[in-house]
TrEMBL record:
Signal peptide positions on this chain: none
Protein name, as recorded: MarR family transcriptional regulator
Residue span(s) of domain HTH marR-type: 21-158
PANTHER family (alphabetical): HTH-TYPE TRANSCRIPTIONAL REPRESSOR YETL, TRANSCRIPTIONAL REGULATOR, MARR FAMILY
Positions of region (Disordered): 1-21
Taxonomic source organism: Streptomyces iconiensis
InterPro entries xrefs: HTH_MarR-typ, MarR/SlyA-like, WH-like_DNA-bd_sf, WH_DNA-bd_sf
Domain of life: Bacteria
SMART domains according to UniProt: HTH_MARR
Amino acid sequence: MREAGKSETGSAPGLPGEPGVEDLAQAADRLFYAMRRSRAATVGQYAAGLSLAQLALLTPLAEGAGDEGLPVGRLAAHAEVSVPTATRMLKQLEGKNVVTRRRSPQDERQVLIRLTQEGAEHLAVMQAQLRARQYAALSQFTPQERHVLAAQLHRLAGVISETTPRPAGPAADEG
C-alpha cells in the first residue's frame, strides 16, 4: 500500500517521479533543519541576543564594510529580507549599541550602517562559535569526502539559486 500523498515512485503528488529526487529533497530538507537547529542552539547560548536574521544582516559588515559602512539595501539583500524589515532590525540593533546608522554624505536618501566595537565583538564570538560547531561536525568526513561534498553542495546551491524566482522591484537598491 502506498503512503498517502505520495505517488507510486515516492515523489510529491503532481510531480514527475525522477528516480532519487524525492530522497535528495528529503535529505536537503533534513540538512537545512539540522543546520538551523545548530545555529539556533549557538544563538541561544550567547548572551548578546542576536537572532539568526540579525546575524545574517550583520555578516557583510564584518566582511569589510570599510569606514563608510554599507547601505541598508545591500544588507537587506544579503539577509534576504525587505528593506523596511532590515530598517526595523537595524534600529533595534542601534538601540543595543551593535551598529551605528548615519546618512550618506554623498546621498542623503541613503542610510549607511557600521558595526560598533561592541557589535563587532559580539558578531565575532557568535561566528566563531558557529564555525567551531561546523568544524566539529564536518571533521567526521575524510578529506576526500569533504572535497566531494563541498563540490556537490556548491553545485546544489547554484542550481537552487538558478531555479528560484527573483523578487520584483528594486529592493536591493533601496536604503
